[in-house]
């Protein structure tokens, strides 16, 4: 991963290009008056591998889950 330092004024003028570069793996350090104030990096999309049945036996659904709700639940006072 490469890194570049860019002054905030220059970053404003070329934000779109900097975002594209960050999306492709570069790290951009944004400075103000020569001091680092922010880091622009691309988002890492992490894929989650789903495994059916992984929570089997850990989640319980009450037998009354599908029963009608009590009438007084919707009563307004």
Summarize this structure as a short list of keywords or feature phrases.
77 residues; alpha+beta; YefM-like fold; 3-stranded mixed β-sheet; 2 helices; elongated
Describe this structure in words.
By secondary structure, the protein is of the alpha+beta class. Helices cover 19% and strands 22% of the residues. The protein contains 2 helices and 3 strands. It has a 3-stranded mixed sheet with strand order 1-2-3. The radius of gyration is 26 Å and the shape is elongated. The chain starts with a strand and ends in a 37-residue tail after the last strand.
The residue-averaged pLDDT reads 90
Structural class: alpha+beta
Element order: H for helix, E for strand: EHHEE
CATH fold call of one domain = YefM-like fold
Write the SSE topology.
Elements: E1 3-7, H1 8-13, H2 15-23, E2 27-32, E3 35-40
Parallel strand pairs: 1-2
Antiparallel strand pairs: 2-3
Task: Kindly summarize this structure in a few lines.
The protein is of the alpha+beta class.
């Amino acid at each position: 991963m490469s890194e570049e330092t860019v002054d905030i004024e220059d970053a404003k003028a070329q934000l779109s290009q900097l975002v594209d570069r960050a999306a492709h793996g570069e790290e951009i350090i944004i400075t103000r008056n020569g001091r680092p104030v922010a880091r622009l990096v691309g988002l890492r999309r992490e894929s989650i591998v789903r495994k059916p049945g992984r929570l089997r036996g850990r989640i319980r659904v009450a037998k009354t889950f599908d029963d009608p709700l009590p009438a007084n639940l919707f009563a307004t006072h």
